[in-house]
Amino acid sequence: MSGQALLRTDSLNCSIGGHRILDSVSFDVCGGEFVSLIGPNGAGKTTLLKCLMKIIPFDTGSIHLEKKDISSFGQKELASRIAYVPQADSRYLPFTVEEFVMTGRYPHLSPFTTCSDSDWDAVNEAIDLTGTSVFASRHMSGLSGGERQLVMIAAALAQGADLMLLDEPAAFLDPGHESSIMRLLREINVKGGTTVVMVTHDINRAILMGGRSLVLDRGKVKYFDEAAGLTSSGVLEKVYDRSFEYIQHPRAGCDIIIPDVTYCDN
User: Fold this and answer.
1) Among 24, 87, 131, 241, which one is least packed by beta carbons within 10 Å?
2) pLDDT single digits (tens) 236-256
3) Hey, what CATH topology would domain 1-81+163-174+195-256 get?
4) How many CB atoms are closer than 10 A to CB 68?
5) CA nearest 20: which of 71, 70, 58, 52?
6) Per-residue model confidence as pLDDT tens digits over 162-208
């Protein structure tokens, strides 16, 4: 962590359809950090990411990117600074893998111009890093969920942004693809220096990825500190309204949640 705030929100409020979704949300993310965003369903996690990307407007408060008010950024300029990987869906995408990854270069392209060597270099580097070169010529519609998610991350990498926001990047994936994506995000963050903010419902994943965790509940920040402290702070029990049991991970050395077996009791 560099200590210099890359992203900062102050008293952020957002309402949708007359319902308050985000309530006085304040936090900062430093350059090079890995931040996991967790909380119950309906806590406001996805809404927060969309506010950060100016996809939906917020009511009051402020968002600053490197001390510059986000309202002063055009959408194309913002996309050159922040890459966003939304939740996976099954929409038909009429592109090959290579074509889709090239769409990540749109913040750097001008209308009616062809892709430059630097654009192709960025695309090829992203494809190589994500291990998607083996199916680069295939159509997106023919990929598995895990393969498609890797391509989505590749397109985000091709943007060349310093900050990457991901909304449940490993949701619905098998353990193999999940591990691949987590290893990739670790490499992007640690070796590549990209700042990562990731929404996840997997609390153990948040703990094991390290960094800090931001816990939202009913639109309010309930915890923002080291991820390892989630198991000792009592915040999980409060926001999920249930008890948890913990055990020390044999390799990581930190406490993680053990599966609940109460529903198996006779």
Assistant:
1) 241
2) 999 999 999 999 999 999 999
3) Rossmann fold (3.40.50)
4) 11
5) 58
6) 999 999 998 888 899 899 999 999 999 999 999 999 999 999 999 99
